[in-house]
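Quick question: what would this complex look like in 3D?
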Amino acid sequence: MKPTPRPGDAVVSAIIKICGYSSILFVGLILFFLLREGLPALWTVDLKSLTQPRWYPIEGYFGLLPLILGTLLVTITATLIALPFGLGTAIFLSEVAPNWIKMILKPIIEILAGIPSVVLGFIGILVMVPFLRKFMDLPTGLTAFTGAILLGLISIPTIVAVAEEALNTVPAGYRQAGLALGATRWQTIWGITVPAAKTGILTAVMLGIGRSLGETMAVMMVTGNAAVLPVHLDSLFRPVRTMTATIASEMGEVATGSPHYEVLFLIGIILFLLSLVINIVASYFSTKTRKRTERILS
Amino acid sequence: MRRIWLSLLVCFLVLQGCTSGQNTSSNTSTSPSLYIENKGSDTIVNLALAWAEAYQKIHPEVRISVSGGGSGTGLTALINGSIPLANASRQIKPEEIDAAKANGLDPQEFIIARDAIAVIVNPENPVNQLTLDQLSAIYRGEINNWNEVGGEDRPIVRLSRETNSGTHVFFLEQVIRKGDKNDKTIFTADTLLLPSSEGIISEVRDNPNAIGYDGLGYVTPEVKMVALSSLKAPDVFVRPSVKTVSDGTYSISRNLFMYTQNLPKGELKIYLEWIMTAEAQKIVTNLGFVPIISSETP
């Protein structure tokens, strides 16, 4: 029997459709705005100025290299810190932990996700900065490493949530088959469950990277914001300046349409492109692995 | 039913408007008929708040909202026409006057108080005095260890406010370049740019390697002020205080300004005239700044 069409249905489906398409519209508008405001920087400030090693915009030094490398250094280190912790927690929650521990641990991780980054930054300044300076005997505790630890903390809940979801969707039959073949629990987890959930885990990592790439406040508070080229061996334990912190602390002062203003938007474009690349990589991996699992299953 | 929801929504929005208004200003109970928005220098923000509160007690019909953000931020807002009164710890730049003229404005300058820039170090640091040349060399990156200026063998960690701060620009011009207009030297790249005065104070308090600078009114007893000598008398070291600033013996002091869009009229004019009175200038002294009246009519 065909259900009689109701007028409410059409309205709701139209609203949902608009919601769905609006995100495309928003991304498009943001990209358009970024390009309109930022691209002129490429000819008002010449390329030579943009590739020099100094960033001091109030005197016309627009070298982007220290900022880009600063962001990469902090983000990559944060990911290296967050990855083992996040993945381990997800495996523990999904595969090892008894139910009652899960009931306690999951809300706690969700609370960690809910702590505003300013608060984490504040704790970072008061606790981590003095501790790291004394413990590692650094000139100052305001370093890229301090920022990376905080960013790791911020991105762990994202990684845990998505990776655990991915592990949970692995059919119970996979694990049972592994155990039935005589594999130990660890062998089953490492050899079967985790590879089967690879797509979701990669997505989790990519989301975690995206989270730390875009984080601003906590990083601005603890990395010292010195626009130095991080090319020394110990650069990780020295102050750096990230792109997000630069935009946040300088956007308020610039005159609209000035070269400085355009360069700040150019930094916005670079951030946009970086997160685009991360997303493309993530979706490339996820489609590639899906095809293989489909092949195995068929 | 729908009407109830609508009125609830309106109530909510109104309430929210009230709370966000209270964040930046002290609300008076009588309905204020006049509203002055005052924004800019973080150095002046406490002073401007104290003035606004005192003035609203005498004139409950006026509401003054005060916020910080940096001199550049305030002047940009003034030029864009979004606020009538900007605070600045530096003089307006020629290009800012041009931008204002392009918007049909004629910015007026008022000197409202004087401030000294105190150079601060950790109390554990044995260095008590620096010549202006030494201070300049430290921030140029030519002196990198405290033992070169009579201290312990420790690396120097240089702290500064962000580039949107009037204090930053003043320090660059008067200390690093020693007032020489043709000198194009800038801060060494590894200078840490911290987003707030509090950030500088807290790092100097914790870190014996650090050197920083801040407005005299912001220096807390937990950090040590360094005595400085001027270029004219390199052997006479003077510690900053209200007295040494008013008699001109302390070398790095400056005027603090308020700017209006045009010649002030009405309530704004009365407010600015009140700021020049002895009563308002007494607040200046209480907050650790230097009043303008006592230097002119002792």
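Answer marked as accepted. The CA atoms of residues 23 and 29 of chain A lie 10 Å apart.
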